[in-house]
Amino acid sequence: MEITESQYQRIADCLPRQRGNVSMTNLQLLNALLYVAEHGCKWRGLPKDLGNWHTIYTRMNRWSKAGVLDRVFARLQQEQILAIRVEHVCLDSTTIKVHPDGTGARKKTARKPSAGRAGAAPPRFIWLPRMLGAP
Questions:
Q1: Among 22, 19, 50, which Cα is nearest to 34's?
Q2: What's the pLDDT at 134?
Q3: Half-sphere exposure of 128 (CA within 13 A, CB side)
Q4: Which of the two ends of the chain, N or C, has the fewest CB atoms closer than 10 A to its terminal CB?
Q5: Is residue 120 part of a domain?
Q6: Where are the alpha helices (DSSP H) in the chain?
């Protein structure tokens, strides 16, 4: 999944203009982002020929917060350059918490009543028997 130079020219107006001394073009960055999306690799797992992973991540994060990535991917689909479909959803342990009983933790079965509470405290409840009717 790579974008060619001619395809890039069709969406170039959606991307911010590069200023200063940049080591990576917007086209290279888009191809690196598509590589991560296609292969599902970690940022550090990017091949060296795609560029420095930290540079790619930093620019992607900045573009994401500014809404640039939303515009780019919408334009890629509008121009029919790329068709994106989500097929898998990943849930990790930070999303779904499991009760300790579900993980095989030992249950507390023995109760240890306090020694001083046996007869000194007033009862916690009062029985109020009521007659509902004659038998």
A1: 50
A2: 46
A3: 1
A4: C
A5: no
A6: 5-11, 26-39, 53-66, 68-78
Contact 35, 1 (CB under 8 A): yes
Q: What does pTM read for this prediction? A: 0.59
* CA angle 113–116–118, rounded 5-degree value: 70
Q: Which residue did the predictor score with more confidence, 4 or 113?
A: 4
What are 14-66's pLDDT values in tens digits?
Answer: 888 888 778 888 899 999 988 888 888 888 988 889 889 999 999 999 988 99
How is residue 40 annotated by DSSP?
Answer: -
Q: Phi first, then psi: what are they for 123, rounded to 5°?
A: -65, 150
**For the chain, what is the radius of gyration of the CA atoms?**
31
Phi, psi (rounded to 5 degrees) for 78: -65, -40
DSSP 8-state class, residue 82: -
* Residue 93 maps to a domain: no
Q: What pLDDT shows up at residue 116?
A: 55
**Which tens digit of pLDDT belongs to each residue from 92-107?**
656 566 776 666 666 6
Q: 16 in a domain, yes or no?
A: yes
Which residues have C-beta within 8 Å of that of residue 83, sequence separation ≥ 6?
77
Q: Is residue 9 part of a domain?
A: yes
